[in-house]
Amino acid sequence: MPGLKKRSVNLAGHATSVALEPEFWVVLETISKDRRISLAALIAELDSKRGESLLASFCRLSALAYVQSKGTAAKRKKASEA
């Protein structure tokens, strides 16, 4: 598995960087495309919702929740077609 990939973002007027595994960046990019917002806007939104959590950790958990919700939706659809 490749190492962490850093991306720079501007949050509340402050430049910062977020380091995540490439697989998480792929999911976050998918979320931003699905929602028709920029990746920077998505990261800013997650930052505003994270509370005391570390931003990178909250990004990972948000990506995981997205993937899990897609899996659950697919299972429901498959069950309803059966």
Polypeptide structure, described:
The radius of gyration is 14 Å and the shape is elongated. The protein contains three helices and two strands. The protein has helices spanning 22-35, 39-49, 55-81; strands at 5-11, 14-20. The chain has 82 residues and is of the alpha+beta class. Strand 1 (5-11) and strand 2 (14-20) form a beta hairpin.
Quick take:
63% of the residues lie in helices and 17% in strands. It has 82 residues and is α+β, with helices and mostly antiparallel strands.
Number of helices: 3
Oligomer: single chain
- Given as residue ranges, the uncertain stretches (5+ residues, pLDDT < 50) are none
Q: Order of strands in the sheet with the most strands?
A: 1-2
Per DSSP E runs of 2 or more residues, the count of β-strands stands at: 2
Summary keywords:
17% strand; two-stranded antiparallel ribbon; 63% helix; alpha+beta; 82 residues
Layout of strands and helices, then pairs:
Layout: E1 5-11, E2 14-20, H1 22-35, H2 39-49, H3 55-81
Antiparallel strand pairs: 1-2
Helix pairs in contact: 1-2, 1-3
